[in-house]
Structure formats: structure tokens, C-alpha cells
Amino acid sequence: MSGPWLFVDEAVPGVRCDAKYATWDNFTGRPVDGYAANRVVGTQALCAALLLARDVAGSLGFGLLVWDGYRPQRAVDAFARWSEQPEDGRAKDRHYPNIERTEMFDLGYIAARSGHSRGSTVDLTLFHLDSGELAAMGGHHDLMDPVSHHGATGITSVETSNRLALRTVMEVSGFDAYEFEWWHYTLRDEPFPDTYFDFPIESVPGRFQSVD
């Protein structure tokens, strides 16, 4: 991938990637428009910051697993359409057990304009370098519930410590946290703060175009 866009797994060696929206394992229960390949894409600036985050995490005995980076605007639009469809129960128990899908926008879990579409936001977690096991975080990716908020009660001391470790790693590396989602971080000095892109994520990239 050329220009300002890079595949995270190529640009940041040692970081693991699993693009959840390219799979069936996400809150919609199916692959999402715009994710034609299970690859994570980000700006050059994002990847440079993730290199630092990888090294800081490594000093604490952790590696990084990235679930999402750049998100095409068409995927965000697909979330909006999905939220208006009748409940099928496919992913509710796992991802939004205590709310209705129609509430996700009002509660701040989904936005009509996502920072991901600007290319410098990531969803990620930690794993233990010695075992490869994911660090316990007191909830999984896209669990839309107060337990996912920073400072949430009802999780163990180990889970609280791991969340704090991730936040420390990311903030030292130039990212800001999102208070409603422990896994969500945006580059503080993102290169495209006002531009929302809509090129699809493909193994072989096509033409990149922005959207207004």
C-alpha cells in the first residue's frame, strides 16, 4: 500500500491484527461493507505511533493486538442502516445485552462520522508476550455496556490494571482515550482531522478517494 496509507501488520512488525469487521465476529453478526480483506490499515502517522506503543508495551511484557484501524465511511453508513433493522438476536447477547441497537448512536457507541474513517484511530488490546494469551480486560471488543467504560466498576483488580496499562502505553505514545470504550484510541496529532475517507480495505489496494 502506497501514499499516506499502510497495512499495520507490515508497518509495525510484531503487532497482531484481526480486523473484526471483515469477519462474522462483530456486533452486526456479519462482514461489513468496505472490509474486503482481513487487514488493518492506518495512516503513516498512526503506524509510527504504534511502533512506539509496541515498544512501550513490550517493556511491560505485553504485545498489541489491533482489531480495527481505518474504517471506510461506507462501513459507518452500513452500521446506521443495520441499527434501523429489526433485531435478529445474532450478536445481541455478546455485544449489546442491555440496550437496543437503536440506542447505540445516542449512547455514544456508534457515530455517523467516525474518527476511524480519518485513518488515525485504532481499536486494540494487549496480549502477554510470554504466552500469547490476551490480557484480561473485563469485557471484549465492542461490548456496548457501562462495564466497557474507563473507570468501570464490577471488574477485577487485574482487569483494571491491564486497562490502565493499555491506556498508559497509548497515551505515552501520542494517543487519546475514548471514555466509553477501553479499546478505542485516537492519535492526538492526526494528519487528516477533518477528512472522512471511503476507499475499501483490500489485500491489493485500489484507488483511494475521500468523501465530503
Outline:
The chain has 212 residues and is α+β, with helices and mostly antiparallel strands. It has helices at residues 8-11, 44-59, 73-83, 92-95, 157-172; strands at 5-7, 16-17, 41-43, 62-68, 121-128, 175-178, 181-187, 196-197, 210-211. The two termini are 23 Å apart.
Describe this structure in words.
- The chain is an alpha+beta fold.
- The chain has one domain (5-207): Muramoyl-pentapeptide Carboxypeptidase, domain 2 (2-Layer Sandwich), CATH 3.30.1380.10.
- Helix content is 24%, strand content 18%.
- Mean pLDDT is 93; it is low at 206-212.
Q: Compute the number of helices.
A: 5
By helix and strand content, what is the structural category? alpha+beta
Mean pLDDT: 93
Strand arrangement within the widest β-sheet reads 2-4-5-7-6
Largest sheet: 5 strands, mixed
| DSSP strand tally | 9
- What is the total number of structural domains? 1
Task: Just give the CATH class.
Answer: Alpha Beta
Order of helices and strands: EHEEHEHHEHEEEE
What global shape is seen? globular
Regions with pLDDT < 50 over 5+ consecutive residues? Answer: 206-212
Strand composition percent: 15-25%
How far apart the termini lie comes to: 23 Å
Radius of gyration: 16 Å
According to CATH, what is the topology? Muramoyl-pentapeptide Carboxypeptidase, domain 2
- State the helical fraction: 10-25%
- The CATH architecture is 2-Layer Sandwich
